[in-house]
Amino acid sequence: MNRSARWIPIDNSRLPLSLVPAGLAGLLFAMLVACGKNSSSGGTPPPPVPTCQGGGILYDTGGSNGFGRVTVTDASIPNFAPIDIAFVPGAGGAFVVASQNGRVHYFNGGCTPVNSIDLTGILPVGSSSGEQGLLNVEFHPDYANNHYLFAYFTSVANTVNSVSRLTVSFDTAGNLVLGDVVRIIDFRKADSPAASNHNGGGLVFAPDASLLASVGDGGATSSTAQDDGRLLGKVIRILPSLTAGTGGYSIPVGNMFAGTNALCSNVALSATACPEILAKGLRNPFRLVIDGNIAFIGDVGSNYEEINSFDYTRNTLNFGWPTHDGPVGASALPGYRNPIVAYRRGVEGVDFRAEDPMAVASGSASVMIGAVYHGPQYGGLLEGALLFGDFYDGYNRYVGVGPGADGNGDITDTDGVPGSHLVHEDAITSYVRGPDGFIYMTALFASPAVYRLVRP
Ligand SMILES: [Ca+2]
Ligand SMILES: [Ca+2]
């Protein structure tokens, strides 16, 4: 098995911003992967997933540990910009693909969508360039009874990022049909004019059915991430309204500032600490994953790309941004926790080419994290592993994770060099485990597609 030796030891060096690849920094697309922990299948197995676009398994030119990927969507679907995938609970292998441009495409066993829903006239989804647009969709854990789908998106004017609740159903012809749409929460961006970047975008339901979202620092002012009167630069945890026709949310027990403080939805700066806050100190946490009680955050950094972890039932952690960027030896910040994985953007990624000759020479620049995998589908590999990669260099890998000494998540690879190469694929935006147990990946840009990860 190939082992990536790109774990970055803690040191005090800092890469000047000017060394961040200009083209990459300019694109300002920060992504990670998440996906809720998809339940494993039980009972009747889902139908086989089609093999599209040529029908073969695509392998890397080297160092893939036997992994390959099968393309399960056609190449010429109109308005197809896959940024997330969510399997319809209880519907075999049927899934929806969220397009960054505000479309939701419904697939049920074929290479092309059964139908697609355009949300751009319903949600105020703004530009879909860079870090903007529809960023995440998640079905509610009780979807079988309530038919709710939640969506995280940016706004036309970039003044807020929002989560809305959509009611979806299927008509007699088998088309996905959109019912009512209500706003759950707005993350007010702090400054005027609002920046278009650092919108976060992680969305996942915890085992207690509370909704966790990872929110970016807003792009204009990084200090928001340490400001308890703002929702920016945080992981927030809420109980979204499940009442038909009614939006909003309440605060679950256990948040950092749970109590009588005023809610902060659509509030730029609250006089009291926001009770929605579960963890803080994040820059652009595009993806958020949960495995049991352990949550993982992929935080796209300035000089360092980070994966952070915490037990969502606790409430005291601070991941440091902007006081710290990457791992530090010591911190005066209360509740500070170092990332469990960090690599310097535009530097370490160059070395990945030793294992992945297709990796982009300019290196990595936006960490993506995905599902923590459990199951037999990959011949014993990947059990308990967090899948992650980099949006820009196309180097996708995995690292063993589990509870650390303090109960929060940590790496469990014992050889000191966590991370093994999976496959090469550029512009991965999510990794989600399907009801068949396999990992599915969405990708943007040159070859927008959904892939299934395989290891024959
Ligand atoms: Ca999702
Ligand atoms: Ca950090």
What tags apply to this protein structure?
single chain, 456 residues, mainly beta, Neuraminidase, five-stranded antiparallel sheet, 3 helices, globular, disordered N terminus, binds calcium ion
Describe what you observe in this structure.
This protein is mainly beta. It has one domain (17-454): Neuraminidase, CATH 2.120.10.30. The protein has helices spanning 22-27, 143-146, 348-351, and strands at residues 58-59, 68-71, 82-87, 95-99, 103-107, 115-118, 134-139, 148-154, 160-170, 176-188, 202-205, 211-214, 234-240, 249-250, 277-280, 285-291, 294-299, 304-311, 341-344, 367-373, 385-390, 395-403, 409-411, 420-424, 428-433, 439-443, 449-454. The strands form six sheets. Strands 1-2-27-26-25 form a five-stranded antiparallel sheet, with no helix packed on it. Strands 11, 12, 13, 14 and 15 form a five-stranded antiparallel sheet that branches. Strand 22 and strand 23 (409-411) form a beta hairpin. The chain binds calcium ion (2 copies). One calcium ion (CA) binds at residues 306, 319-321, 324, 339.
Summarize the structure.
By secondary structure, the protein is mostly beta strands. The protein has helices spanning 22-27, 143-146, 348-351; strands spanning 58-59, 68-71, 82-87, 95-99, 103-107, 115-118, 134-139, 148-154, 160-170, 176-188, 202-205, 211-214, 234-240, 249-250, 277-280, 285-291, 294-299, 304-311, 341-344, 367-373, 385-390, 395-403, 409-411, 420-424, 428-433, 439-443, 449-454.
